[in-house]
Q: What sequence folds into this?
């Protein structure tokens, strides 16, 4: 075998997809049958995909804030990988939302040249976002990054694992793709939590502070909205209450491995974020995300 | 200095090929090194097998090597074999 | 040193020269002249620093990228640049230097990086123009380095060049899209071209008449073409691309010389080049400050991971026994 072939195999020459490059706008759901299955309310399905998509979008944005600031170059690459995965999930889910017919006033605010996924991402107001505080909370130090990522990825992985058998084939396909990505994210975060928890006195102190800061953000993530309950009853979505034991079990196990006492996990709280009731950090995050696109609603990018 | 050790990275691009030395990463331990190596050198291509080994643990000999008396002072660990040659048709624009 | 050593040293030097003459690669454990080693370390480190600092100007638009697709493209690109820096630091480390030391030299101002990254990115068109012109100039510089005489450097450059071609393509494609957009967008593109054109030409370094080390580097196979040769090639390549795009390159003297087939261009402001290189550019302080902050703020993380490894090294090693796949 000629050595050049070895090289090509390493760089995956024919696989351009991973570069995320293409020509012009490409609909992430191009060629996919987006018919909503019988017995599933399109408005509910769209609202649900918006919840999952918004979590991915705002968490990707928080991870991206770390780029050029990570503690080592190896970590720049890892954080960017996870952010790219979440961004990809957000695009698919927002496109699924739009294909289910749930667009609302953002479609009117955006110019005709703006694709639906971007109308949803860039032209909704904060009160129209459906993300949880766990995904949207501002960054702290690196300990906060990995603890929040551990919690968010564990929760999302538990949901996606079940969504692989959603009655909506599009959502099931998105979930199937996402499971591998989220496993990677969860394991990466867990490796860091273990190392920092069982590292130096300072890292132990910081990771403990991060756990205390992140734990309250789990208060509302297991509380279902009416949309989730209706869809879950029809086999299209997951009732987040069903994930609680598994998620907290994983977190407790990782924390124990990291020589940390598990915190007292918060009692359930109403799903404020899912209903569009956010702290000021969401408006701030969205101002940074949307400013340029909104300044040029008729532009093509 | 809190520098992490250097790990050499070997990748098997696909079944039927040997692992090939592709470069190095810094990592605190082998487990982190293998993930960093996968991130950097294979872009997480799941079909690919990755080995990492502490650079300091490599014992090397090369046919052209002269008496170690003349080896440069900075040369402790390095690298070794199985380098693939540079393809002639390197892409430009 | 005793006489036999000198004789042997002579022989080593002849072996080195013979390897170069045969167009074969010098590999890390080979004997090499100290000047060759030092020149390589400086060049590779400077190149690596440029990749890492180069993440910042474009990284400044990551959060505000105006579409999700553009955000993903830009994030993938900035990630690639981190990877390029890592490939290059790895190549430098085969020469007996340490990445942490090189980073220290960077943040302490003892080693340089490409001065192009000391200019600010004012609009999103800058992202496109950086891909087109800055990555384009980098490709011109780097493709010949795939045949560098030093093996690890040449191999790193092969990987990097493959990825750079995507970078240039995404930049140019963004500009094409913007030129088809609104008047405001077209004005943004022209403005960005106006600001980046001359600094891009400066990326090839001082003119040959003012580049004293070029001859030696070329003899060593560390450099394959002179600065002016590469600059000319870049201009010749770029002019038709600018025409296709519908932008004007900000140089009234730019014209095709029918006799040579090459483009003539105006005089480069080398005073500006030296001023920016010496630290007087608009963003020098900001770039280094951020890099230093990342190093310093991350120190506790690196220490903790090292402490964990010291405690559990044996356990981790045991888990990884045998073949990983
Ligand atoms: Fe690069
Ligand atoms: Fe690049």
A:
């Amino acid at each position: 075998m000629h050595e050049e072939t070895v090289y090509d195999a390493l760089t995956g020459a024919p696989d351009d997809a991973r570069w995320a490059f293409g020509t012009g706008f490409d609909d992430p759901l191009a060629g996919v049958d987006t018919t909503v299955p019988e017995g599933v309310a399109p408005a509910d399905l769209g609202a649900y995909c918006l919840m999952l998509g918004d979590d991915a979008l705002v968490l990707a944005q928080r991870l991206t804030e770390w780029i050029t600031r990570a503690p080592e170059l190896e970590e720049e690459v890892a954080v960017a990988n996870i952010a790219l995965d979440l961004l990809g999930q957000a695009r698919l889910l927002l496109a699924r939302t739009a294909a289910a017919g749930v667009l609302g006033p953002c479609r009117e605010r955006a110019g005709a040249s703006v694709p639906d996924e971007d109308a949803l991402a860039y032209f909704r107001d904060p009160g129209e976002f459906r993300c949880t505080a766990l995904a949207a909370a501002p960054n702290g130090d690196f300990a906060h990054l990995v603890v929040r990522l551990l919690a968010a990825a564990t929760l999302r992985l538990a949901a996606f694992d079940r969504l692989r058998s959603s009655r909506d084939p599009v959502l099931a396909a998105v979930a199937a793709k996402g499971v591998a990505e989220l496993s990677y994210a969860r394991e990466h975060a867990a490796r860091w939590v273990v190392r920092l928890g069982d590292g130096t006195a300072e890292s132990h102190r910081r990771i403990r502070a991060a756990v205390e800061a992140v734990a309250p953000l789990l208060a509302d993530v297991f509380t279902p909205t009416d949309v989730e309950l209706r869809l879950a009853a029809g086999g299209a979505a997951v009732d987040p209450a069903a994930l609680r034991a598994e998620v907290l079990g994983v977190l407790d196990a990782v924390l124990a491995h990291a020589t940390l006492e598990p915190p007292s996990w918060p009692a359930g709280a109403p799903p404020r974020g899912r209903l569009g009731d956010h702290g000021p950090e969401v408006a701030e995050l969205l101002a940074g995300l949307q400013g340029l696109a909104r300044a040029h609603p008729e532009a093509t990018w | 200095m809190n520098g992490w050790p250097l790990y050499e990275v070997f990748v098997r691009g696909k079944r039927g090929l040997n692992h090939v030395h592709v470069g190095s990463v810094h990592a605190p331990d082998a487990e982190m090194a293998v993930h960093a190596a996968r991130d950097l050198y294979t872009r997480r291509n799941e079909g690919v097998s990755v080995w990492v080994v502490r650079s300091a643990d490599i014992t090397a000999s090369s046919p052209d090597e002269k008496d170690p008396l003349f080896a440069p002072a900075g040369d402790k660990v390095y690298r070794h074999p199985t380098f693939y040659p540079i393809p002639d048709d390197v892409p430009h624009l | 040193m005793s006489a036999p050593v000198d004789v042997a040293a002579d022989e080593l030097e002849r072996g080195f020269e013979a390897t170069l003459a045969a167009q074969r690669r010098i590999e890390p454990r080979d004997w090499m002249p100290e000047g060759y080693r030092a020149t390589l370390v400086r060049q590779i480190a400077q190149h690596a620093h440029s990749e890492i600092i180069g993440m910042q100007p474009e990284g400044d638009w990551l959060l505000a990228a105006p579409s999700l697709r553009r955000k993903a493209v830009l994030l993938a690109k900035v990630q690639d640049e981190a990877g390029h820096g890592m490939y290059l630091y790895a190549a430098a480390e085969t020469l007996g230097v340490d990445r942490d030391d090189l980073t220290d030299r960077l943040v302490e101002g003892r080693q340089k990086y490409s001065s192009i990254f000391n200019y600010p990115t004012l609009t999103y068109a800058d992202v496109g123009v950086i891909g087109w012109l800055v990555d384009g100039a980098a490709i011109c510089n780097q493709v010949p380095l795939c045949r560098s005489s030093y093996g690890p450097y040449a191999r790193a450059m092969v990987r990097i060049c493959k990825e750079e071609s995507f970078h240039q393509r995404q930049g140019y494609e963004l500009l094409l899209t913007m030129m088809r957009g609104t008047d405001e967008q077209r004005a943004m593109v022209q403005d960005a071209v106006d600001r980046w054109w001359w600094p891009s030409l400066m990326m090839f370094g001082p003119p040959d008449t003012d580049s004293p080390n070029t001859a030696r580097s070329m003899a060593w196979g560390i450099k394959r073409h002179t600065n002016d040769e590469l600059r000319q090639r870049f201009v010749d390549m770029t002019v038709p691309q600018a025409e296709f795009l519908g932008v004007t390159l900000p140089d009234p003297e730019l014209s095709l010389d029918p006799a040579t087939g090459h483009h003539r261009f105006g005089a480069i402001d080398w005073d500006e080049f030296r001023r920016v290189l010496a630290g007087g550019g608009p963003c020098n302080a900001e770039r280094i400050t951020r890099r230093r902050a990342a190093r310093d703020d991350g120190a506790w993380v690196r220490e903790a991971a090292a402490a964990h490894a010291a405690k559990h090294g044996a356990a981790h090693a045991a888990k990884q026994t045998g073949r990983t796949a």
